Amino acid sequence: MATPTIFITKAEHFSDKIFPLRLELLAIYEAIKYIRHMLEARHFTVYTDHKPISFAFHARKSNCLPRQYMHLDYIAQFTTDIRHVSGKDNVVADTLSRVEALESPIDLEALAKSQASDPELENLIK
């Protein structure tokens, strides 16, 4: 397996949660658009854990929504080599997609006491 070039994350819209194919296609489109300068005139392969995407270039145009067709057209300018990798074999990407923000409660009273006794902060305020 090749070394990943970049990992990109973006918030999902409600409609994208309903249509995973659209979401995966958009993710590939956005990633290629984001690092286009690194990809031009190079051969590369897109690996995805979403199997239907690997068949997207073989689908009929009539089966695609206009936006999906536009994304496929843009991706095809760079590569049509999209391969399926099962989630269990794509450990790093699978792990990154499941990372949740760690919530650490902030004790505002302790913060206020620390700020009140901080000589450096006291000098800045004066």
From TrEMBL:
It comes from the Eukaryota. SUPFAM superfamilies: DNA/RNA polymerases. Pfam families: RT_RNaseH (PF17917). Coiled coil: none annotated. GO terms for molecular function: endonuclease activity; hydrolase activity; RNA-directed DNA polymerase activity. Keywords: Endonuclease, Hydrolase, Nuclease, Nucleotidyltransferase, RNA-directed DNA polymerase, Transferase. Residues 21-72 form the Reverse transcriptase RNase H-like domain. PANTHER family: PROTEIN CBG26694, PROTEIN NYNRIN-LIKE. This is Reverse transcriptase RNase H-like domain-containing protein. It comes from Parnassius mnemosyne (clouded apollo).
